[in-house]
Amino acid sequence: MRTRRCRYAGRVDRRDVGSWMEGPPPSGGQEWPGQRLGRPSEGPGSLARFVPRAGALLIDWIICSLISAAFFGYDGFATLYIFLVEQVLLVGFFGYSIGHRILRMQVQTLDGRPAGFLTALIRSVLLCLVVPAFIIDADQRGLHDRARATGLFRI
């Protein structure tokens, strides 16, 4: 009688860990994020990658932290509220926050228009919950972007 050894019986190898650390697999033979959306792989109109997105978030958070420190004694809730207001107003009216603008990105609908006020409000509330931003699809769009059919694109 032949016994079959379970892959997880006592040993974890690199394949087990690497699968989730590499992010979601490309869907449907997609070669780059945004290909199925009709977006280019590089340059203006392409989806912004993780490092610039994280950089823009850091820039925005630092600005909001400085405002919170100056006016509210660096209260965590005040910082989060300032961040929410900044995201709603700037993304709602212009399509980008300060960090997005510095790093040349814009929140756009999938047909290329800047996000409107309602879209910015819903997207920003979900972004402040943090978790939806980490649940991404093959196009590197978080739940906060998928909820309103938007994406963060290079300009």
Q: Secondary-structure map with pairings?
A:
Blueprint: H1 14-21, H2 50-72, H3 76-93, H4 98-102, E1 105-109, H5 117-128, H6 131-134, H7 143-146, E2 150-154
Helix pairs in contact: 2-3, 3-5
The secondary structure category is mainly alpha
Mean pLDDT: 85
Residue windows where pLDDT falls under 50 for at least 5 positions: 16-20
The total number of structural domains is 1
Oligomeric state of the chains present here: single chain
What share of residues is helical? 40-55%
Into which percentage range does the β-strand content fall?
5-15%
Q: C-alpha Rg, in Å?
A: 19 Å
- Largest sheet entry: 2 strands, antiparallel
Measured between the Cα atoms of the first and last residue, the distance is 63 Å
Globular, elongated, flat, extended or rod-shaped: what is the shape?
A: elongated
| Strand count | 2
Write out key terms for the chains shown.
single chain, 155 residues, mainly alpha, two-stranded antiparallel sheet, elongated
Can you offer a commentary on this structure?
The chain has 155 residues and is mainly alpha-helical. The protein has one domain. Helices cover 48% and strands 6% of the residues. A two-stranded antiparallel sheet has the order 1-2. The chain is elongated, with a radius of gyration of 19 Å. About 3% of the residues have low confidence.
